[in-house]
Fold this sequence. Notes:
Blueprint (H helix, E strand, L loop, with lengths): L10 H6 L2 H18 L4 H18 L3 H27 L2 H7 L3 E8 L4 E5 L2 E15 L2 E13 L11 E9 L11 E6 L3 E4 L3 H16 L5 H12 L7 H9 L10 H17 L5 H18 L3 H15 L5 H19 L7 H15 L1 H8 L5 H25 L1 E3 L2 H26 L3 H26 L5 E3 L4 H22 L2 H16 L12 E5 L8 E6 L2 E5 L5 H10 L4 E7 L4 H4 L2 H5 L3 E7 L2 E2 L2 H13 L11 E4 L2 E7 L6 E2 L13 E6 L2 E5 L5 H10 L7 E3 L10 H6 L4 E4 L12 H9 L3 E4 H4 L1 E6 L5 E6 L1
Helix pairs in contact: 2-3, 2-4, 2-12, 3-4, 4-12, 6-10, 6-16, 7-16, 7-17, 8-17, 9-10, 9-11, 9-16, 10-11, 11-12, 11-13, 12-13, 13-15, 14-15, 14-18, 15-16, 15-18, 16-17
Amino acid sequence: MPRLDDDTAPARAAAADLRMPLLGAVAWGAALLAGTGGRGLAVVAAGVVVALVSVRRLGRGAVATVLAAGLVGSAVLVTALLRAEAVGSSPVADLAEEGAVVEATGVLTSDPRRVESPFGEQVSVRVQVREVVGRGWRHRLRTPVVVLGYPAWADVPLGATVRTTGRLVATDEGRGSDVAALLTGASPPEVVARPDVWWRGAAAVRASIRDAVAHRPADQRALVPALVDGDDAGLDPDLEADFAATGLTHLTAVSGTNLTLVVGFLLVVARWCRVRGRWLLLVAGLGIVGFVLLARTEPSVVRAAAMGTVGLLALGSNGRQRALRGLGVAVVAVLLVQPGLAASAGFALSVLATAGIVVLAPGWRDRLARWLPRWLAEAIAVPAAAQLACTPVVAALSGQVSLVAVLANLLVAPVVGPATVLGLAGGLLALVADAPGRVLGTGAGWCVGWIVSVATHGADLPVAAVGWGTGPAALVTLTALCVGLALVAPLLLRSAVVAVPVALVAVAVTVVPLPTPGWPADGWVLAVCDVGQGDALVLNAGGGAAVVVDAGPDPQAVDRCLDRLDVDRVPLVVLTHFHADHVDGLPGVLDDRAVGQVWTTSVLDPPGSVEQVTSELAAAGVVPTLPPSGTRQVGGVTLQQVWPPPEAPHGGPGDGSTANDASVVLVARVGGVSVLLTGDVEPPGQAALARALPGLDVDVLKVPHHGSRYQDAAWLASLRPEVAVVSVGADNDYGHPAPSTLAVLHDAGAEVARTDEDGDVLVVAEDDDTPRVVAQR
C-alpha cells in the first residue's frame, strides 16, 4: 500500500495542484459530450464553473488555466469525434449496415471470452481488421470489430493475425460505438501469422503464473493470476459474488493497484542491484510497458496503467502534490488516446478511487494517527477513502451498498502485496525451474486463501450489503450522503472517544440483523424474492415452513430472503427447469435448513446445470423426483402440477433451448388465495395450457419468463388475475419486463408488482381472501 505523504505543503502549492485536476475534469466532460450527446454538457459546465471559481485562488495564472482548459477540452472533443467518425464511416460499418457476408483478416487484440447465446456457447474477441472483402470489393484499413464465433476461437493466441468469414451487423450503439461492427457466425479462424515475440513472451509468463499455482486449491488457483495480471477466467461465479458483496471486486480485475505493486517490486529489486538515479526511471518505464503487455493492451488496461503510474508518484517525496497533478495529467492523456473510456464505469472507479486516496486519505490518516499507530491509521484511511469516493458509482452498477467493504479491505491489505509479488515471482521463476516457482506459488496461494476466507465470511454476514436504488433520486441522495460523510469524517476520526463508538455501531449493524418492522406481514401467502434476473418464490406453509419454487441465480440472495421470512424448514423445493437463473441459488436454500422433497422437470437440460443440481442435492442427502400426479398438500399449501404432460426423464438438445417450455407449472392455493406459478413457459406451452385448462381463473399470476414479450396475450388476459408479480433484475439486458406484456396485464385489471422496482414482494390474504401486495423497497 503506498505511503501517503504528510499534508504539510503550503496552501499556495495546494491551490496550484488544482490546475491539472481541472484540466482532467474538462477533458472528461468533453469526452462524455462527444460520446453521449447532451449528457456531457453538465460535466463541461461544471469544469467551466470550477475554472471561474478558481480564478481568485490561482491569481495571475487563472487566465492561462482557463485557456488551457478550453484547449484541452477542444482537443479531446475533436479527437473523440474524429475517432467516432473514422470508425462509423469506415467501409466495415457500411457493409454492416447492409448485413453483408465478408471475409476479414485482422489481428486479435483481446483475450477470448465465452458468452452464452440462443445458439449455444460462443466466443467473443476483438479484432483489428486490416483487410475486408465483401460485395465484390477489397478494402485495406485498420478498424476494430467484435467477432462472435464458435469455440475454436478460444484457442487463438493474442496478437495472431487470422482470416475468417461471417456476417457483419451494426452495433447497438451505432456510429457512436468504439467498434465498427459485429462479425457474427464467424467461421473457425485460419491463423495467417503468429503473434510477435513480445506477445508470445507475455503469454508464456501468464501461463507460467498459472502453472506456479496449479497444485493449489481451485479458488487459489484462479485468484492468484487475477491478482497479478487480471487473468480471471477461472474464477467461480459464487466467489465473484462474495467479492462484490464485500467490496473486493477490484482485486479480481486489472487495476492501478496491480501496476503499483508489480512495478514497485521491480524498483525494489533494481535498488538491491544498486540501480540509481535516472536508471530507476528506465526500470519503471520498462515495468509499466511489461505490465501492459502482460495484462493485455485493452482500454481497461491502459486506464489501469495510467492510474497505477499516479500511485507510483504518490510513493515519492511530496507524493500528494505530485499524485494530484499526475491524476489530472493521466486523465487527459488517457482520454486523448481512448476518449471512449469516459463513459466506462471502470474508468470512473479508477479515477474516483485514486482521487479519494490522494485528497481524503491524508487528512483522515493524520487525525487517526493522534490516537492510533501511524501504520494502522494509514491502513484504515486508504481503503476507507477509496471506498467512499467510489460508493455512488458502485451503487449505480450493483444496486447495493456494501457495509463491510472498508473492514474487508483492511483485513486483506497486508496480504495483497505479498500475494501479487509472490505470484509474479513464482511465474517468472517457473519459466526456468518448476519446483522453485511452485514454492513461491504456494506462498501466493496461502495469501489469497486468507482473501477468499475474508470474502466468503464477510458476504455471509447478515447485513453485508444493503439494496439501493439505481434511479437518479436514489443516486443523488447517496452522493450527497457521501459528500456529507467526507466533510464530517475528520471530526469523527480525531478522537477515540467519538471514533470507537461509531466503529462499534457500524460493526454491530453488519453482524446483527436489524429488525424489519412489519416484515413479513401477517397473513402473507406468497413471497417473491428480489434475487436479480431470476426466479425465487416462497409459499407460506405455516410454522416457519415454506415451499420454495426456484432458487434464483444467487445463493446469498435467496438465503437472505428466506432468513427475513423466518423460514427454517423447506418440506418441498420445486425447480421448474434447469436454467441457471432458476437453480444456481439452490445452495442458499439448502444452507442450514431442513429440506424434504425436491421436484424437477422431466427435461434434463442443459446438462451442466443438471449435473450441478444433482451433486448439490446428493451432498444434502436429497434425491430429486418428478412432481406426482393429482394434488398434494404441504402444510398450508395445496399444489397441483398442470404442465408439462407426464413423461419419463430425458435429455434435451444440450443447449437448454427447450428448457423454458418444459417448465413445471403449478396451481397453488394458500390461505384462500389461488396462485399460478408458470416458470418460464413460453407461448406454445401457454397455448397448450389454455386448451388443457379452459376457464382457469386465478387470484395471483407469476408472470412467465420475467415478463418477456413472448407471451400468449389472450391466455394471460383470460386468467383475470387480481395481482401479477414479475420476478426480474434491474437494468437487465433482455428488456424485461416488456411494455407490451405489462399493458396486457394492466388492461386485464391486474395490479402489477415487479422486483426490479419494488424489491421483495409479499402477497397478503385479506380477511375476504382478496390478495394485497406489500413490497419491501
